[in-house]
Fold this sequence. Notes:
Blueprint: H1 7-24, H2 29-42, H3 47-75, H4 81-102, H5 107-126, H6 146-158, H7 163-172, H8 177-202, E1 213-214, E2 217-218, H9 219-242, H10 245-264
Antiparallel strand pairs: 1-2
Amino acid sequence: MEIIEHIPALLFAGAVAGFLAGLLGIGGGVVTIPALFIVFGHIGVPHEWRMHAAIGTSLAIIVATNLSSVYAHHKKGGVDWLLIKDWWFFVAAGAIAGSLFAKNLKTAELIYFFAGLVALLALKMLLPLDRLKLGKSLPKGVLRFISPTVIGFFSAVMGIGGGSFSVPYLTLYSMPIHRAVGTASLAGLVISISGGFGYLLGGWDVAGLPKGMAGFIHLPSMVVVAFAAVLMAPIGAKAAHALPKSVLSIAFGVFLIAAAARLLSAV
């Protein structure tokens, strides 16, 4: 199999993604997507579907990384289960809609879409905006369903677990960042399952994809990356609870900027 020669690179990407999943509450898609995009160019995924395959595979991987991350954060009391109980349906609906919408976008459009939104999110975490709050608690009534739907939609289009959106959103409504990171891991699990299913369906009837593909999900790559990621996620979660709030915020912002730059270089 052509994938064998790329296993070391995929293992490395998975290890970094898993660590960041635990550390920052993200699924690691911004790490795995560039790596998968490059590898898929060598194994015969057509360029017009290469980003779609990278995103779909990334979401499938995030299921494994976020399961491990959620468990690690839950043991430290860092997950708001009641919030996700209120959010899950709307997060899932948004993720499925986003994954089906993404099929209509070209590879370059997906990359620019991803990089632009990630850069904006990074500003909130890097600038001294700790005092900037939208409120002391999350919105009530019908408004409380809009944000999880939007988070699910854009996260699925971008192939990420949603932490890049939900962590800044939750901190703007005064949730402590450590709890926001843990809660984002659980929201990301819902997004990755729902969005991954959408990419599986969206790519099911696409011709010209290589062997090993289930829709837009490349199963061999998924297994390799997920293996490394699951091993590293608990270590990242432990590091998150050991770091002060300011360091965690800066790390999150720097990470987002680096991810945006890396993907733009792949256009």
